[in-house]
Write a structure and sequence with these properties.
single chain, 8-stranded mixed beta sheet, 7-stranded parallel beta sheet, 25 helices, 23 strands, 41% helix, globular
């Protein structure tokens, strides 16, 4: 029930708005954990709630779960308004509070904001934006975890009560708002759910790399770290405090992950273990095979750790590596897995471990225990899932400057990151080569038909929808266009059914061939007249490298790392990301001008030979290994 429900109403006579902080006290048997930790002669939650009470323009209510009687009594003693829900779930308790005091909106805040970890005017910005836009939900995006700020309109809370409880009860308010918004599509705001977003970087004037992506606060050591930084900024300037807090957290993370219990390693990094827990063969694995092939002439003793036998393991052996099959998921946090990995590392005794993707806790821990230098490849535009790997790594190789920029935003030292473009075997992928199959004949494609090839996983960021719509537009001018899509329908193929449906809706069935995974992808690339990759936020495209080496004209979206590979109008063409009309114009440009295709293909071949060859890749990678070796001496 509500304690002291006499709350101020808004001046426009609408129902009142309130701010709430959710406090979930720890078990009584753990007296100094979470919100019950001591902070400036009080409990942490008491300090945070008291600070927010004096800073907010809305009346503050402390919200507690069922069973939190001690919390209720303490709030009464401190003069804080308190509401105890009948549930253990935050959102259910918010709804109960809104129903009891008949509010028009609830501003839900993480109580740590009471430490001044965001500008004090941030909450006012949320309130004003919510009122101005008439939104159902207004949320701050990109905040350091676990911080959150979200304004919930009464209409949104009423909507939740109409849904089956199992759909939303386990979610945070901001998360469930985004889920409902996606399920409704994008109708007019008052007919569907209207969500307004305020980026944290915009509200603070800081870039994502200036503030921590998360703020540890669970243990006493975390609180002591926060207290130290707060003492350095007694004026409460979050814009100055957040960069300093990020630096301190990174220093502590790096220190904790640098403990080496077995030292005295010899200098020189000649025995290299490439670790790649994923066993399927995708662009990342193809690039690692090329790296092995590139290093082979340098006298290295190359090893490769793979979870399961398959095409990737076979090609790694052919490239010159000794392949070790773990026979299980090497990332599993199990004692037997750790012991098995440790036994394998003892057998190989590598001078360096270079992780091609996420390898998991066992290998990371063993590399630190044994003092083996660790390098982490980053091949994704969203490296947050690799955070432990990035912190552990002595050096990080990013496959493009774009990926390097995204990686630097994580909780790491920026100076660890190096840009290492992937490579392509320009001798194997050569215009003078001969394919092993005549794909055009096999697929009954005539000599006058213009073939567009796209090799990409059926994932949302690959934007097959843009390519298909562009093909439909192009077909209105050029009836000879054909499209080949290659992708494994069983490998993270979240959009595969949607692609098939869209092909049918756009009447492209006769023009489009959807092929499963192909071991002999080279023959398909030879068969193409042009290659398209219109992905958004693509780290780097393996198919683009191969097509460039073959002298094929390539069209890429001007997004992510693709713009670093293709120089627009010189070694290929750019199109506007997400715009099928822009892509169609570039496709028509190639169809209508054989001379243009030839010129761009020659430019692509030249760029591949100069920038992305095996020798260029090996030279750059060896310079990084040498730099790391010297730093360890």
């Amino acid at each position: 029930m509500m304690e002291d429900t006499t709350l101020a109403t808004r001046s426009d006579d609408r129902r009142q708005e309130v701010a709430v902080v959710w406090i979930e006290p720890p078990p009584s048997s753990v007296p100094k954990s979470g919100w019950a930790q001591p902070f400036r002669h009080r409990l942490l939650w008491e300090h945070c709630a008291d600070q927010l009470r004096h800073k907010l323009s809305l009346p503050l209510v402390v919200l507690g779960p069922a069973g939190s009687d001690v919390l209720r009594d303490r709030c009464v003693a401190l003069g804080l308004r308190y509401f105890q829900g009948t549930s253990l779930r935050q959102l259910q308790c918010v709804i109960e509070l809104a129903n009891e005091i008949d509010v028009s909106g609830v501003l839900v805040l993480h109580a740590l904001l009471g430490l001044g970890l965001a500008p004090w005017n941030l909450t006012e910005q949320v309130i004003q934006l919510h009122r101005q836009t008439g939104a159902d939900v207004t949320l701050v995006t990109g905040m350091p975890s676990p911080l959150s700020a979200v304004m919930l309109d009464r209409r949104f809370l009423d909507l939740l009560q109409e849904l089956p409880a199992g759909i939303w009860l386990e979610e945070e308010p901001a998360r469930i708002a985004e889920m409902i918004e996606r399920s409704m599509g994008e109708p007019p705001p008052r007919e569907g759910l209207h969500v307004t977003r305020l980026p944290f970087s915009t509200a603070t004037g800081l870039s994502a790399g200036d503030f921590p992506s998360y703020i540890p606060w669970t243990y006493q050591g975390d609180i002591e770290r926060l207290e130290t930084v707060l003492q350095q900024h007694p004026e409460g300037d979050a814009r100055a405090m957040l960069p300093e807090l990020r630096r301190v957290i990174i220093e502590d993370l790096e220190r904790a992950h640098r403990r080496r219990y077995r030292t005295g390693r010899k200098t020189g990094l000649k025995r290299v273990l490439f670790a790649s827990n994923p066993s399927a063969y995708t662009g990342a694995e193809a690039c690692l095979v090329n790296t092995i092939r590139a290093l082979r002439p340098g006298g290295f003793d190359l090893h490769c750790l793979v979870a399961q036998e398959g095409l990737f393991a076979s090609l790694a052996r052919d490239a010159g590596a000794t392949v070790h099959i773990l026979g299980r998921d090497g990332s599993a946090t199990r004692v037997d897995t750790l012991l098995m990995v440790d036994e394998l590392i003892e057998f190989i005794r590598p001078d360096l471990i270079h992780c091609n993707a996420a390898v998991g806790f066992p290998l990371l821990a063993i590399s630190r225990l044994r003092g083996i230098p660790l390098v982490q490849w980053v091949r994704t535009a969203a490296p947050i899932a690799l955070l432990d790997h990035l912190v552990c790594a002595d050096m990080i190789t990013a496959v493009s400057s774009f990926v390097a920029g995204e990686t630097i935003k994580q909780m790491i030292h920026p100076e660890k990151v190096r840009v290492l473009y992937d490579c392509v075997d320009t001798e194997r992928f050569s215009p003078e080569g001969r394919p092993s199959r005549d794909v055009r004949a096999e697929l009954n494609i005539g000599p006058d038909e213009f073939v567009i090839l796209c090799i990409a996983r059926f994932a949302r960021n690959k934007r097959h929808d843009v390519l298909l719509n562009a093909t439909a537009i192009t077909a209105e001018r050029h009836s000879n266009i054909r499209l080949i899509l290659i992708g494994d329908p069983l490998l993270k193929a979240e959009t595969y059914p949607d692609v098939l449906s869209l092909i049918n809706d756009l009447h492209l069935s006769r023009r489009t061939i959807v092929a499963d995974f192909q071991c002999d992808v080279l023959s398909y690339e030879f068969a193409a007249d042009a290659v398209v990759l219109c992905s958004e936020q693509e780290a780097l495209g393996t198919v683009v490298l191969e097509s460039m080496a073959l002298g094929k004209p390539v069209i890429v979206a001007s997004s992510g790392g693709l713009v670093e590979m293709i120089e627009n109008g010189i070694s290929g063409l750019h199109c506007v990301p997400g715009d099928p009309h822009s892509l169609s114009e570039q496709m028509c440009r190639l169809i209508e001008s054989p001379a243009e295709r030839k010129r761009l293909g020659e430019g692509a071949r030249k760029a591949a030979s100069e920038r992305f060859s095996l020798s260029a890749h090996a030279e750059r990678l060896l310079s990084f290994y040498s730099e790391l070796s010297n730093s360890l001496c």
